[in-house]
Amino acid sequence: MKLLKNTLILLSIIVATCYGTITKVDTMQEVMCHFENADSDTLAIFDIDKVLLQPSDPAFQTLNIKYHRESVNKVIRSLPEDKIPIFVVLASIHSDSILVDEKTPDYLQQLNERGIPSIALTANFTGSIGPVDNLESWKINRLNLLGYDFTAMAPSSEQIVFDDLPSYRGNYSLYTDGALFTNHPDCTKGELLVRFLQLTKVSPKRVIFIDDHLNNLESVEEALACHDPSIQYDGLLYLGADDYPSTLLTEEAFETRWEAIASMARETE
């Protein structure tokens, strides 16, 4: 029995080594610890929203979203399913962006100086929506304003329109300025990343992906395992936005802000 137990433990270690692990981290400093042995054969991938940036409006910061969960559910239930992704984008557009962690731009610069290629991977839309004519350029500009520049860190400088993947709202998934945009709600981050690796011939030996949603981390893990099982995968579930010292709003103030964005979403095609 003891031999069987030890064998199972050994097998679990081997599987974890081959297919990677997903680890919860609370600070960007913890994230950087996972890069101690990283080199030019490592590809660092950062989600944007709630990892690099977050809205300055407290109504759309994690503290209030968790505290006013009933109001969140009420507003979301009032929206048609196809309007929910639009609501998320509009909430971002109608608020300035701020850093989740003030030190993150410096941390990314350290990766750049060490020659570790890095890209952003976001579920944001491409094309126009509401008052924004070009969402990908708008998001890249937000990153640049706060000290992020993935063009200097990315393993590929070409712009790629993924017109072999399904379109959404007349637009396709896109790679530009060091950032991947899934665009389509049904296009997983794992699917898009693998298509990017195939088209660019980028062949990392290790991938470190930082995201605030477990399903995104799992989709990348599964896609990479199918694409190239030899790639070591480290998925980091980053919860830094959870601890951001936001201003707690009253229920009325919170609902008013969410309803305003919901009204815009209902009217946006």
How are the secondary structure elements laid out?
Elements (H helix, E strand, L loop, with lengths): L1 H18 L1 E5 L2 H6 L8 E5 L6 E3 L6 H6 L1 H9 L6 H10 L3 E3 L4 H10 L4 E5 L12 H11 L14 E3 L10 E4 L2 E3 L7 H12 L5 E6 L2 H14 L4 E7 L12 H17 L2
Parallel strand pairs: 1-10, 2-5, 2-9, 5-8, 9-10
Antiparallel strand pairs: 3-4, 6-7, 7-8
Helix pairs in contact: 4-10, 5-10, 8-9
What does this protein structure show overall?
The chain is 42% helix and 16% strand. The chain is globular. A hairpin with a 2-residue loop joins strand 7 (173-176) and strand 8. By secondary structure, it is an alpha/beta fold. Helix 8 packs parallel to helix 9 (214-227). The strands form two sheets. An eight-stranded mixed sheet has the order 1-10-9-2-5-8-7-6, sandwiched between helices. It starts with a helix and ends with a helix. The chain contains ten helices and ten strands.
* Order of H and E elements: HEHEEHHHEHEHEEEHEHEH
CATH topology: Rossmann fold
CATH architecture: 3-Layer(aba) Sandwich
Assembly status: single chain
Helix vs. strand class:
alpha/beta
Strand content: 15-25%
What separation lies between the terminal Cα atoms? 62 Å
Q: Any idea what the radius of gyration is? A: 19 Å
Q: Count of helical segments?
A: 10
Helix content: 40-55%
Sheet bearing the most strands, described?
A: 8 strands, mixed
What best-fitting shape do the alpha-carbon axes yield? globular
- Poorly predicted regions are 1-19
CATH superfamily (homologous) name: HAD superfamily/HAD-like
Number of domains: 1
Give a count of the beta strands, DSSP E runs of length 2 or more: 10
